[in-house]
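dumping this here so i dont lose it
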């Protein structure tokens, strides 16, 4: 049986990965159990596993602006350490990355081979990790970019909207940033399927985009969240990004294309709106 290691197992995606891999021989390690910035610890942890899914990450996008070195240590240099350990042991590495490595310009979905051009410190750090995987594991490294992730086990936009719905009569949400809301449980299942295909020799190493189909704004997602929760979506009002200035620049276009999945037996994720409805049925509210 294939042996799986999931790093960052205490996070939102990590917890969903453990559920998705429940029928596999899987070991999950949390941040407290594995310091991914420690090369000796990483080498010891990776040894003996066939597939490593790296869900460990610095996720505080705004915080990275004033702590870029620390963020890059986790999101970039630690990924290089993991990739090197996987190369030495023969393991395949599935590295979870982000749309923030791209420019976020235009209106069309960014293809997998789009030029990278991070607009903030978080994106720059994640790009360091991507490049390390591609350099050290050209055939056994899988970079899976995701975006607008939400789920049951951690802080995220959908959870924030539900909390604020109980605190405020109306909410203002930006309507000029667009992306593909992605349920972490669905992404976990896709990562599992990709790992299985990789072990079977049916998925080439490279860059993949793990986001839902379709496109909406944060405003659109907020209204849909209210609808799924049985609340009045008219309580959500549109506004623009310049009304909510944050330390880290956010891309205006976070939509990604999904062409690379055509080279594998793994299906792209489904429409974002259907995904959100299913997520509520299975326990987001």
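and the seq i came up w/
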């Amino acid at each position: 049986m294939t042996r799986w290691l999931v790093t960052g197992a205490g996070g939102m995606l990590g917890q969903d990965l453990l559920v998705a891999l429940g029928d596999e021989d899987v070991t999950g390690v949390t941040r407290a159990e594995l310091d991914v910035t420690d090369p000796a610890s990483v080498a010891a942890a990776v040894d003996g596993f066939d597939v490593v899914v790296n869900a460990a990450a610095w996720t505080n996008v705004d915080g990275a602006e004033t702590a870029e070195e620390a963020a890059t240590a986790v999101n970039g240099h630690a990924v290089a350490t993991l990739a090197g350990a996987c190369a030495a042991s023969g393991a395949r590495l599935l590295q979870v990355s982000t749309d923030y490595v791209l420019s976020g310009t235009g209106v069309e979905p960014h293809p997998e081979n789009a030029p990278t051009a991070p607009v903030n410190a978080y994106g720059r750090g994640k790009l360091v990790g991507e490049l390390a995987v591609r350099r050290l594991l050209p055939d056994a490294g899988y970079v899976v970019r995701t975006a607008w992730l939400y789920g049951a086990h951690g802080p995220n936009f959908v959870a924030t909207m539900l909390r604020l719905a109980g605190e405020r009569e109306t909410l203002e949400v930006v309507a000029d940033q667009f992306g593909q809301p992605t349920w972490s449980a669905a992404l976990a299942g896709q990562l599992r399927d990709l790992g299985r295909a990789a072990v079977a020799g049916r998925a080439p190493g490279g860059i993949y985009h793990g986001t839902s189909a379709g496109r909406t704004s944060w405003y659109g997602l907020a209204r849909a969240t209210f609808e799924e929760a049985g609340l009045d979506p008219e309580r959500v009002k549109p506004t623009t990004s310049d009304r909510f200035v944050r330390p880290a620049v956010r891309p205006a276009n976070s939509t990604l294309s999904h062409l690379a999945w055509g080279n594998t037996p793994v299906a792209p994720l489904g429409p974002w709106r259907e995904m959100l409805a299913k997520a509520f049925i299975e326990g987001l509210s």
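The chain is about 35% helix and 15% strand.
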